[in-house]
Amino acid sequence: MVNSQKYSIDVLISEEEIKQIVDDLAIQIKHDFDGEDIVLVGVLNGAFVFLHDLMRALQKLGMKNMIIDFMGMDTYGESTESSGEPKITKDLKQDIRDKNVIIVDDIVDTGFSLSILQAMLNARQPKKLVTVAMLSKDERREVEVKVEYIGKHIPNKFVIGYGLDYGGKYHRELPYIGTVRFEQ
Ligand code: IMP
Ligand code: MG
User: Fold this and answer.
1) DSSP 3-state assignment of 24?
2) What is the DSSP letter of 97?
3) Going by CA atoms, what residue is nearest to atom 10 of ligand 1?
């Protein structure tokens, strides 16, 4: 359990920068999938804010025929360290066979959850499966995963806000991405 420790929050990525990052990702995705039907698969819980912003950015660029679905995964429980054994808490409603599927994730850390999710969705034989992640902590990677679109590479620090929580509880509502600084 981590919640009893005192901490403060430093801004790492501002609201303005987030908007720029999301708009850039939308341009890349639009370029690669223009005119095609796509299924955006948001990885719950963390990716719901990013998915919302990305969907709107794609719509503004004229993308149509987007299906939105969600996959629930629990990697961390109440800890700030990945358990390495993510639990599936919710499955897709859509049949993704022969569809263009874009996994929308908040952050790639060890890569365990994403590699499991990719294998699971690939087994359902989509036409194409790609991944977009808002953030990546490259230093922390323990398994190799392919992430076609990455918003920003960040250092090995625990981050919160913009959908990301602390200890399974707080700070998802923050409009910026911040780092947690523990007080001694
Ligand atoms: P991985 O399996 O270690 O790559 O963990 C990926 C998932 O853990 C992400 O999709 C997030 O939901 C969560 N996660 C990883 N790092 C952080 C962090 O710094 N803050 C909040 N959640 C995180
Ligand atoms: Mg996640």
Assistant:
1) helix
2) T
3) 107
Per-residue pLDDT tens digits for 115-155: 999 999 999 999 999 999 999 999 999 999 999 999 999 99
Left if phi > 0, otherwise alpha if psi is -120 to 50, otherwise beta: which for 171? left
Ligand with an atom nearest the CA of residue 165: 1
Instruction: Output the CA 47–ligand 2 centroid distance in Å.
Output: 6
Joined together, the tokens standing for residue 75 give: 């990697």
Stronger pLDDT, 159 or 83, i.e. the higher one: 159
Q: Whose CA is nearest to atom 15 of ligand 1?
A: 109
**Quick check: CB of 112 below 6 Å from ligand 1?**
yes
Q: What are the tens digits of pLDDT across the range 36-45?
A: 999 999 999 9
Residue 99 and residue 119: Cα distance in Å, rounded?
16
Respond yes or no: is residue 32 known to be catalytic. Answer: no
Measured in Å, residue 162 CA sits from the centre of ligand 2 at 12
CA distances from 81 to 47, 69, 138, 160, 174 (A): 18, 27, 15, 14, 21
pTM over 0.90: yes
